[in-house]
Amino acid sequence: MASHIQQLLNTWYEQRDQMEWVLATIIEIDGSSYRKPGAMMMINSMGKYHGLLSGGCLESDIMRQARQCWQSGRNHIIQYDMREEEDIAWQLGIGCGGLVRILLQAVNKENNYLQLDTLRHYINRNQSCEYIQKLTETVPHNELIESSPEGKHQTRAIRSKLTDGEFKQTIAPVKHIAIFGGGVDAIPVAKIAANVGWQITIADPRTGYARSNEFPDATHISKLPFCNIDEMPWLQEIDAIIIMTHNVQLDADALNAAQESSASYVGMLGPTHRTERVLSIQGLELSTLKVPLANPIGLKLGGELPESIALSIIAEIHAHFEGCDGHSISHILV
Q: Which of 107, 151, 275, 291 could disulfide-link 21, Cβ–Cβ 3.0 to 4.6 Å?
């Protein structure tokens, strides 16, 4: 995800000239793999790596291979194939059973840091961009192209394409969700969302709700009445909205505000018969909403505690962002 790349680049940037670095990027897979094309890892000459391209079984060998980039200054493509018994992947004990190709590139002033400093700038400013890595066995030369505004709220955070001469991926900003309602049951929702790497805005005008000490991971806390839409420019930066104030009038105001947002997902806590009351207050109808309303919100995971409900909510939104259906991978129901 873009949030992972953001953390990776922020860590690298502070130490970019203090040691040698190599960027490792998965450019192709065939069959099962721990990470997908576009996943990145940074390796330094102090023997440390940031990020993972496997479950931990490949990293030591990738680090060994990275030394060739520092010595030659060239791109280096390595491959691990669990389908072939002679491949080193068997010796490393990889259990995924697929093929993984990884591009290694030295990162330094001479090659303009592979444009990673600019990529970091775009991601930190929530700008979408295309990152193009050249695959030829020459001095690494990557390109960065700012994407159109339309790509900002695309469903998946990273889309990639491999051609004969380059690996291209579109990197969208970190996902940003808004939680309308700052009660105790919103706390685990915000915590799980933060662990996933999303930005979080908490909105609740009530005294005693949405306290900053209860939502330490929140990017922004809004105490404005929900009807003050003109004073909420952040509504145009939102990818998903969760409505959970437990107050019919506030939920109605929040749902109305959601119609003026950039969110591609809007979900509301509570049963459907309650939702009819919420809609009627604002004179809204399900059939005319800008974005279909997910209600009751969340996947059927079971559990009654706030943490279980929070998990089901974030799971549903995560599936929406990734364009997945949220069904069991094994198709076995316990």
A: 107
Give the DSSP letter string of 4-68: HHHHHHHHHHHTTTTS-EEEEEEEEEES--SS-TT-EEEEETTS-EES-SSSSSSHHHHHHHHHH
**Residue 285 backbone phi and psi in degrees, to 5:** -130, 145
Q: Is the peptide bond before 296 cis (omega within 30 degrees of 0)?
A: yes
What number of other Cβ atoms are within 10 A of residue 305's Cβ? 10
307-329 pLDDT per residue, tens: 999 999 999 999 999 888 888 87
- Lookup: tokens for 268: 């509301």
Burial of 307 (0-12, 13-18, 19+ CB in 10 A): middle
User: In angstroms, rounded to a whole number, what is the distance separating the alpha carbons of residues 172 and 154?
Assistant: 7
Question: Cβ–Cβ contacts within 10 Å for residue 72, how many?
Answer: 12
CA distances from 197 to 11, 51, 152, 334 (A): 15, 14, 17, 29
Position 84, amino acid:
E
Query: Other C-beta atoms within 10 Å of 95: how many?
Result: 12
> Are the C-beta atoms of 256 and 282 separated by less than 8 Å?
yes
Burial of 306 (0-12, 13-18, 19+ CB in 10 A): middle
Q: Do 244 and 189 contact (CB within 8 A), yes or no?
A: yes
The pair of three-digit structure tokens given for residue 55, joined into one six-digit string: 């479950």
Contact 82, 91 (CB under 8 A): no
| Region label for 36, one of left (φ > 0), alpha (ψ between -120 and 50) or beta (otherwise) | beta
